[in-house]
Amino acid sequence: MTAAPASPKASPTMSAPDYRPTVFLPKTDFPMKAGLPEREPQILERWQQADLYAQLRAARQGREKFIYHDGPPYANGDMHIGHALNHVLKDAVVRTHSLLGKDVPYVPGWDCHGLPIEWKVEEAYRAKKQNKDEVPAKEFRAECRAYAQHWVNVQSQQLQRLGINGDWKKPYLTMDFASEATIVSELLKFAESGQLYRGAKPVMWSPVEKTALADAEVEYHDITSTQIDVAFEIVEAPNAPELVGAHAVIWTTTPWTIPVNQGIAYGPEVEYLLVHVTELDGSIRRYLVAEPLAVEFFGRLQLMERAQRGEIKRFDSSGPDFKGANLAGAIARHPMHHLGGFFANPRPFLPGDFVTTDQGTGLVHMAPDHGEDDFALCKAHGINPVFAVEGDGRYRADWLWLGGESKNVINPTLNAPDGPICSDLKAAGALLSAGPFSHSYPHSWRSKKKVIFRCTPQWFVPMDAGSPTLREKAMAAIAATQFTPDKGRNRIGSMVEGRPDWVLSRQRAWGVPITLFVDRKTGDYLVDKSINQKIVERFREQGVDAWTPEFAAELLGDRVDQYEMITDILDVWFDSGCTHVYVLESGHWPEYRWPADLYLEGSDQHRGWFQSSLLQSCATRGRAPYNAILTHGFTMDANGRKMSKSEGNTINPLDVMKTYGADILRLWALSVDFTEDHRIGDEILKGVADQYRKLRNTFRYLLGALDGWSEDERLPVSEMPALERWVLNRLAVLSGELKAAVLAYDFNRYTSLITGFVQDDLSAFAMDVRKDSLYCDAPTATARRAWRTVLDITFHALTRWLAPVLVFTAEEVWGTRYPDAGSVHLLEWPEIDAGWQDETLAHQFILARKLREEAYLKLEEMRRAKEIGSFLEAVVTIETTNEDRFVAMQALDLTELLLVSRVTLVKGASEALTVGKSDDAKCARCWRFLPVNPETELCGRCTDVVGEMVHDA
RNA sequence: GGGCCGGUAGCUCAGGGGUUAGAGCACACGCUUGAUAAGCGUGGGGUCGAAGGUUCAAAUCCUUCUCGGCCCA
Hints:
With 953 residues, the protein is α+β, with helices and mostly antiparallel strands.
């Protein structure tokens, strides 16, 4: 003890001396109030100055490695609650495995290219009334780069504030020149191995901005379009010959797509009928429409009114109903077939699952250039897009119908009932109706102008080419990967199984170019290893700005005119799909190796990073870049609903850290079931803060109880009483359970095991029982030394075990006891002797605690009856007929364990537990009810201890 | 609309055919006043999202519905 208690002071009352100064109360400077928001930044600063991350790398040098590879968040805003949860989990994985003694490097990264950053930079231009197109590309990209770098810096600070221990001095960025060079080099591997092809796909296209738009760049407005019914004459119908000569009717709100029609889709299960219209001259026209839509069709054609007005003789829909499946093999011709060429080609009927009877005629005109369903169905039947509409929205000059028309196809006058399309159709006898139609239609977010669907050439990675195919390789890799939780396998598996080819190209500025040259004659892309090598080298020096026509000329020399230089950029998922290459494999971080043991992200990344990395790696390396995947769910508000700014139910992790501290946020993240969606809110955070307080107070008590501890005091386990050995047994069991939880990434279990032990075993039981010994026994007493020895062991175990969770508090606790010992985070798993486990003891204590519970129920009754206050005033008598039970109880010091004045064991005629009040007096020092010396009011033990002190003094 | 997943006390979580569904926290009441803005004890609190079904027996297995989530359309 550093401060020996003084001698008893004379009590102010005459009755008894004040023995308080002779009691060894806990003593510590460790404050009860945490003040985390102020304290944490100070601790963080110490770590930064000492370069804790580097220290940890040095401390684990040469140890077994655990390769965790960090997925890159997007660098465009403040950290949100999802980032916080995600990074706390990552940090917990890294720290717990590090605690197990492994070398676990953690290089954080950021995703820096892509559209959202481009937008933000463009927005700034617009604010300055500048036009993006007038800014040189290089300058524009420099601004994107600066924008991304800004948010990398901000997020780095925020994540460090959260206590994430990583290599913040040397993170990886997808926009590092070395990364950009690697991405290009990986792309060229696809090219060299023939895993790229140029195809086409309908995308949202803005004719005004002459660019493709992402879904997020599109907004919907109500507009009025022209709806038309158009008749296509059926010329062949092998399964329904009676249809030849009849007209299939299609309905559309985009008349401009009729000049690009290439077929008609029907629903195989839809019921169709023929409408007969008898003209005044007696001739009959027959129209094929879906039965459920016939009445609406009559309405649009005003057949009833026309019949009443005498414009037609009559109409009826008699005739056999039949299923669409009978249309298989049928052929129609385009209303403008007389123009020849493209228009003279047959227009086949194709079965489409997407055909419904909600609207229209149940027959859908197919323009593969301008619709996703159209494109897919036509492609499946060998019909390809014709690219009749150009980037500015006009028909190609050489198009047979309306070629050279000066208006954009989406122009209302072009589509109007009196416009050229309708006029020509009418002249051809094919226009059955034309009128206004109100609906919701996509517009460009920026120009507010209408957009169109338009097929454009794109670069693809084939999923099903070669043997084994990429899909097969990916499926095999999924089977070989460990998933936590296991349902992730199913999820990514069904996605990969059904996904289409990977579209790699984007028509954008801020990204890594697709560095290909396409032969203008053959359409083949150039595969030249020496040129490719030069490209990669140049990118390493200059990054994405290297891709210029000048560089192309330099590479190709006099062949430059023979090739088209591709200016598309890569899908950013390709960037992030390559992180395993430049982080794990490049040697830029020599502490890493390929592949990773673990990837850890939200479950949305089954479609994102997990998949892009999988496909990239399977295509270039034949296996996944990871051995295991850990996924977490999403953070909802207190009511289990998704957070959104417009709902005003968001929780900002920066605010939580300001109000409660990072350790509270971390404890929250590691307490919830992260494998599912989980909640956060004020009530929840208050609960977590309460939990934290309990842990903090336990540490405070441990520190106070261990005040003045010296190694001389340590007692061998063999000399310890049962309670001490039982606590060691609990630590040994706990150690095994915690290790299992770490290996299973079960942090919820990890934290609840610790808090359970602290609350139930330590605070409510062992510490309560041993207060008497700690406070009142002589410092040299074996019992007190035994308890302090166990407290010391417990202290070392708990600080280490909690260090990955309460990173700041653990450091504060450790530093309070060992101010000069360095960081708690460099330490390893506590040394727990497996021999401490003791089944017999464990069973004895289950019995003891049951008796305690039973006794307390009865004592509580006495207390309610005001017969006693403290349980120390009570005596307990336990009677049993059972010999084994008697022996077991005898082995325990039940008076101590029950915290009463005396427990009497009786071997008698019944099983009973009775309680009563002690006849003894209260010892003025230890407050137990025992025989006391009436003069000093001290029990025997306290008489000795106090006597010793007076003697020493 | 489709695929996948989830709903157990006010909160965070256990339990995955077999007594009367548990723990910690919160809450109420009490003890202690030598962990004191702490510690200890006792207590109340549940239609296990809903409805059907299988079974001697269902929180647990099946079906439907509902609410919520992620990913698609």
